[in-house]
Amino acid sequence: xxxxxxxxxxxxxxxxxxxxxxxxxxxxxxxxxxxxxxxxxxxxxxxxxxxxxxxxxxxxxxxxxxxxxxxxxxxxxxxxxxxxxxxxxxxxxxxxxxxxxxxxxxxxxxxxxxxxxxxxxxxxxxxxxxxxxxxxxxxxxxxxxxxxxxxxxxxxxxxxxxxxxxxxxxxxxxxxxxxxxxxxxxxxxxxxxxxxxxxxxxxxxxxxxxxxxxxxxxxxxxxxxxxxxxxxxxxxxxxxxxx
Amino acid sequence: xxxxxxxxxxxxxxxxxxxxxxxxxxxxxxxxxxxxxxxxxxxxxxxxxxxxxxxxxxxxxxxxxxxxxxxxxxxxxxxxxxxxxxxxxxxxxxxxxxxxxxxxxxxxxxxxxxxxxxxxxxxxxxxxxxxxxxxxxxxxxxxx
Lengths: 243, 144
Fold this sequence. Notes:
heterodimer, A: Fumarate Reductase Iron-sulfur Protein, Chain B, domain 2, 2 domains, five-stranded mixed sheet, two-stranded antiparallel ribbon, B: 4 helices
């Protein structure tokens, strides 16, 4: 393999990471220079730093292909998945900043405690609730009924949306966009019988009415879910009591 | 993967500390219109404080009311008045946009277009109100 410096495609990028040391409970910014290809993802640059320069850098990643939702970070001031953000799309001439997602307790460097986020998800009962007799065949559904909630089935629970929300930053009790998206997925499912129950949960003080329609969640979603639209649909369902 | 092409520690300046705390979230039109909505809302709220106080003077004494209102008759307050109108017009039309986002099925999808409509109407109205509101001050400052 040719050396990086002799390959005209490689360029030097600067990566600045906001780190947190749990032993001293202090934040600091560290900076590294990495030889990177324009087609590299930010995750590749972070791997390069961790594997070749500083093994103490801590971040989460699992599948590395935009499916598992482990590596949501604030990159250049915006929530994204590190495995879906290319160097060439981020103005590599300037330092690239990487911070942990905001609003959840930081455990170390870029790793945050996802428990409050996942608790809000559990609270909306994200599973099929059907009353009456079990069908002997599959639960049939028309294409139209399936399309009704298609958009909100795409969520990967990466928390990029919830931690981009100014309401969530200041009020951690707010259910947050991700929980509402996952409630929407069942509220508008014709096979589910617990829409009322979920709507009541989201009608609470910290439910959908906290949404201020800043659209940060919609912009941040790596799956392109129209989140603010989904939240507005839940608001309308609460008012009209029709799903 | 090509990570091996870069030597360990090559050009690294690890440990360099900078003073910055964190980056400002780079939200887009939706976030900034929300920020502007908040700021204009607070401005209008503070104006209402002053407005309720000076208007309530009418019940106390007419001459006191007149003397307070007289202190407003200067170009600085006039420009503040124009600023207040700008805040109210933006807040009002963006409020309609937010209602559309919440209650119109296509509102959320068209929120950016709606915002540019709000800004467009705001520019036209503010341009139209420039002279009617500021005529007194313009005469006084430029003397024509």
